[in-house]
From TrEMBL, chain A:
Tree of life domain: Eukaryota
UniProt similarity note: Belongs to the ELP6 family.
UniProt-recorded name of the protein: Elongator complex protein 6
Pathway it works in: tRNA modification; 5-methoxycarbonylmethyl-2-thiouridine-tRNA biosynthesis
Pfam families in the record: ELP6 (PF09807)
Species name: Balaenoptera acutorostrata (Common minke whale)
TrEMBL record, chain B:
Pathway(s) it belongs to: tRNA modification; 5-methoxycarbonylmethyl-2-thiouridine-tRNA biosynthesis
Disordered: region residues: 212-247
Signal peptide: 1-17
Keywords of the record: Cytoplasm, Nucleus, Signal, tRNA processing
Subcellular location: Cytoplasm; Nucleus
Protein name: Elongator complex protein 5
Family, per entry: Belongs to the ELP5 family.
Keyword Repressor part of the UniProt annotation: no
Protein encoded by which gene: ELP5
Keyword check for Signal: yes
InterPro entries reported for this sequence: Elp5
Chief localization: cytoplasm
Highest taxon above the source species: Eukaryota
């Protein structure tokens, strides 16, 4: 995790708030560093993390995680991390019987419908521990990222419904946190993405926005983050 | 200001944005209605009942009836806890309610309903809901129905926004400058020309409303907030007041 970001947010892994939806947003820059930050932050905070990783491979996140002081391999082996590797699962979904539930079931359907199977995956991954298992601090759902779901044919309302249910279960019922990245298409006039971004903006307790510099590319400074709550 | 917003009855449309949220004003209006002795029915789609009731004392809370569409609005959990029939039936049930006395119905939010129901269906139900006092033959003329609807402007195109606007007797558009919130209010009194008013205000932690004098004249916003909002409108990230931090 980045200590500077912790200072900015006035938080530490020991003092992580619970029951919150955090929206990560990037515009004209790459905001994935925020995803890596929160992944390492919540693993260090001893939270049970479900990571819906749709953009990169497990090994990519693991390599970056190690530079930030966490081992995703170790976290997964001891049951702290449930990792949905979207790039691999997206292929699996086409080689299993259609009646078998799969979190990325929408990829098989002509009409993308809803993300209920993905929600049920998250619900199962973050269900409360049975007695005798390690006690984690609180459940956390991390999604990288939600915009790619729009690119895969899911409607903005369906994505909002998925986040709604995750918020109801993870944040409200189980007093955990949800962190999700959405890209801001800016001037691209992507109505569906704007609905998603603004809809999540209304639901979020904290919005962290990474922007490219107005003056363009700079070797030493890549952008500026803004936060609002 | 709250009395004036509730004076006309019918639909009060609260148009908010990510930057200038309207739920606090909605709760202030709910508190006002409850203090006037009205029962308040809340169709809660976006926040849990526990979160919505936060900040209200027990006297106010005892007058609130929360219809929970937040926990399982689409019946995904299949535990039997979802409101039967989903959002459409929940709305129709509000129209059929037979409680005596004045009542306020709060829709939190109209945006959630508009994203999940056809616009025409929603408009028909809203019209029926906000004209219930004229439908119940034995109602006294003094009993009004107040319908408070929270609408997130950036989520909808000009068509649905215009349709809902045409149903509203009172329309409040929230904005502000330099951290100071303002409400641009449009009143549509019967047989009179619409009137406009701008109020600067703040909502206190107990959901009382405090009027403010407003920011310095040179920093006041454009007085015409009815520039059509579309779903592609820019989020207010670049507004003054945000502090960039360099990492």
């Amino acid at each position: 995790m980045f200590p500077e970001l912790n200072n900015l947010l006035n938080t530490t892994p020991d003092q992580a708030e619970q029951g919150k939806l955090t929206l990560l947003c990037d515009a004209k820059t790459d905001g994935s560093f925020l995803v890596h930050h929160f992944l390492s932050f919540y693993l260090k905070a001893n939270c049970k993390v479900c990571f819906v990783a749709l953009i990169q491979s497990f090994s990519h996140y693991n390599i970056v995680g190690q530079k930030l002081g966490v081992s995703l391999t170790t976290a997964r082996e001891r049951g702290q991390l449930v990792f949905l590797e979207g790039l691999k699962s997206a292929v699996d979904v086409f080689f299993r019987p259609q009646e078998d539930p799969h979190p990325l079931q929408f990829l098989r359907e002509a009409n993308s419908g809803n993300l209920q199977p993905l929600y049920e995956f998250v619900q199962e991954a973050l269900k409360p521990m049975d007695s005798g298992e390690a006690a984690w601090r609180c459940p956390v759902l991390l999604v990288d990222d939600l915009s790619v779901l729009l690119s895969l044919g899911v409607g903005a309302v369906a994505v909002l419904d998925f986040v709604h249910y995750c918020r109801a279960t993870v944040c409200r019922e189980r007093k955990g946190n949800v962190v999700a990245l959405v890209h801001d298409s800016g001037d691209a006039e992507d109505e569906e993405n704007d609905i998603l971004l603004n809809g999540l903006g209304h639901q979020s307790h904290l919005i962290l926005r990474a922007e490219g510099l107005a003056t363009g590319f700079c070797k030493d400074v890549h952008g500026q983050p803004k936060g609002s709550s | 200001m709250l009395e004036l917003l509730l004076a006309l009855g019918g639909l009060v449309l609260l148009r908010d944005s990510v930057e200038w949220e309207g739920r606090s004003l909605l709760k202030a209006l709910i508190k006002k209605s409850a203090l006037c002795g009205e029962q308040v029915h809340i169709l809660g789609c976006e926040v849990s009942e526990e979160e919505f009731r936060e900040g209200f004392d027990s006297n106010i809370n005892s007058r609130l009836v929360y219809h929970d569409l937040f926990r399982d609005p689409l019946n995904w959990s299949k535990t039997g806890e979802a409101l039967p029939g989903g959002p459409l039936e929940a709305l129709r049930a509000l129209c059929r309610r037979t409680d005596p006395g004045p009542v306020t119905v709060a829709l939190d939010s109209l945006s959630w309903l508009l994203l999940h129901l056809p616009c025409t269906t929603l408009c028909q139900i809203l019209h029926a809901l906000s004209h219930q006092d004229s439908c119940h033959g034995d109602s006294s003329p003094g009993e009004q129905v107040h319908v408070l609807g929270l609408l997130h402007e950036e989520l909808h195109g000009p068509g649905p926004l215009g349709a809902l606007s045409s149903l509203a007797q009172t329309e409040v558009t929230l904005s502000g400058v330099m951290g100071q919130a303002s409400a641009h209010i449009l009143y549509r009194r019967p047989q009179q020309r619409p009137t406009h008013q701008t109020q600067w205000f703040s909502i206190l932690p107990d959901f009382s409303l405090e009027l403010q004098g407003g920011p310095p004249l040179e920093s006041q916003p454009n007085p015409d907030p009815h520039t059509p909002s579309t779903a592609g409108s820019t989020a207010p990230w670049a507004e003054p007041g945000y502090q960039p931090h360099f990492l």
